[in-house]
Amino acid sequence: MRSHVSQAKSYRRIRSVHKFRHNNKGQFVIIAALLIATLTLATAFSIHEINVHRQSIAYRPVDEFLLGTTSDMNRALTYGLKTFTTYLENNTADQNATQHALEFMGQWNKSILMAYSSYGLRLNAPFGSSFESTWNGSVSENPGYSLARLTYDFDVDSYGFIGWAGITYKYVQLQILNAYRNRLDFQITQSIIGQTNAMPVSSLPNNPNSAMFKIFNYTSQSLITSEPSLNYIGNGGYYATFTPALNLTSRDFRLDIATPEDGIWVSAHWRPGSMGRIFYLWSDTRNEQTQNGSLTQILPYNSSKLNAPLSFGQINFTLPLSYLLKDNLTLGSTTDVRLYLTSSQAAPEMTITVGFNFGGSPYTLGSAVIRNIPRMKPSSPPILETCVINIVTIQFPDQTIPAGSIVWLNIFIPGYNGRLTIYYGQPYLSQIQF
Amino acid sequence: MTDRMALQRRNKGQARILEAVVAALLIFIVFTGSSFLVNRLDTTSTQERTDLDRLGYNVLSKLTESRTIEATIENNATSQIMRQIELKNFIRSAVPSSMLFSLDITEYGRNETWVMPLSVMTISNADGVSFSNSLTISSTPTLYTSKNGNIYYLVLILASGKGGA
User: Fold this and answer.
1) Whole-angstrom Cα distance, residue A355 to residue A319?
2) For B91-145, how does the pLDDT look when each residue is reduced to its tens digit (9 = 90+)?
3) Of A195, A251, A427, B77, which shows the fewest CB atoms inside 10 Å?
4) Is the pTM of the predicted complex or chain greater than 0.80?
5) What is the distance, to the nearest Å, from the Cα of residue B114 to the centroid of all Cα atoms in its chain?
6) Which of B151, B153, B154 to mutate to test the interface with A (most CBs of A within 10 A)?
7) Per-residue pLDDT for A51 more than 60?
8) Which residue of chain A has the CA closest to B44?
């Protein structure tokens, strides 16, 4: 009896262990846990390996380094142009003024090489600086400009940066728009890209002193003493009145202005009789004003653009450039044409013709060709294209356009199938100047 | 009979409990090990160094673009001490309060043949010992040409740690 009971007990014990060992309902829990463990360990190990070899993908402040260097390059060029124009303003010869500016740029060149020598900064070519301006008798005196240009090409070995090259500019332009009895209209703009993309200089003080605003008698180079009072009319345009009053209509004068922030001087020359000799492109809306019996130039001060008509195969259209002339206009030997434009298609040649209509008949004054108009993206700002037209002999006496004429400008591009846009109004003053 | 059935039910639950405990232990050990592998001290230091570099360049950019150098160092209307205080306040307002900083300004003097570095000013909110005790230090340089044509070399050193004086 006892052995039967003990046998039964051991049998039950063996059976429960057997049941326990074969109770494998929880195997999937263990397998899932093992899978999670394996994946997590694999991920952690990969991150560990990346971190160990992090040097190859570590952050390096290349962008900040380049941005800081480029910014100081612009600052140095600005000071160089200030030096150059200040010497010119003080009647130093062009060559000497250039020399002083180049000396400063050379100093800056040495400074940057010393500052970043531990970064492995190397010049592939010397910094190329140049300075130019329209001062006292240069080709294009109105508008006048002051320009500095810097070219560079260098490597930064520690960042593995090879062949970082480019050009940087500083450009300031002054255009005298009109001169009246005790009133002078002008526009001043600046750019760091070149002659286009100019931004208005809007910070001239209302009552500038002679340290930044001067009018000279052009012939004698003597300073005309009078206190100016400026009014800003937008887009870098101002009109100035003077105390005591100045009659500028028949004066041959030079206007010099220094930009308030950078101290860069720029100069423009206004010849007597220039009023009425500069024709700005304008809209069809005529807005004539007369002053003391003389016709005043119409200036559309708001920027806008005129879309040229399209014709398949070629483009040929005429833009009116003036109202009816009330006075005779005596011609010189040339006329300067300045056009701000964009083009959706490259054009190898663009023929500009200037003429006038009188008595219902057209008369041509001359033509010139502007070559290699580039193809531009839709969002590109306008570029400036210029040309000089030699004026032919006309049948009117004394080479004079008679009163009652309308001056026009014609543009012809053979084989053009794009969209040409001519800009007018500030700051893109497309114009012709006789 | 009743006791035997109760015993059988208890045995059934023991296997589930054991499996659950083993699985939980396994996952806990793995996550602990992963945390150790990922959060290495030198990885953390590298990230902090990167952040300090970025902050340093931002502060220098703010300093140069705002023309603060002309308003402080080149302002002859104020004393040297006042210039230092103004510059120090500027840097202090641009970095976190717990950060150590040191700004060293050197001017490149003009000479016909070479440039001569001349120390102008050093501004700091801590001594050298505090910097050496810091785990992470960054040094960011920049060149600055002022409106008056003076050329300065600025080096900003930042360190994480408790702020100094």
Assistant:
1) 11
2) 999 998 888 999 999 998 766 566 677 888 888 888 878 888 887 888 999 999 9
3) B77
4) no
5) 36
6) B151
7) yes
8) A51
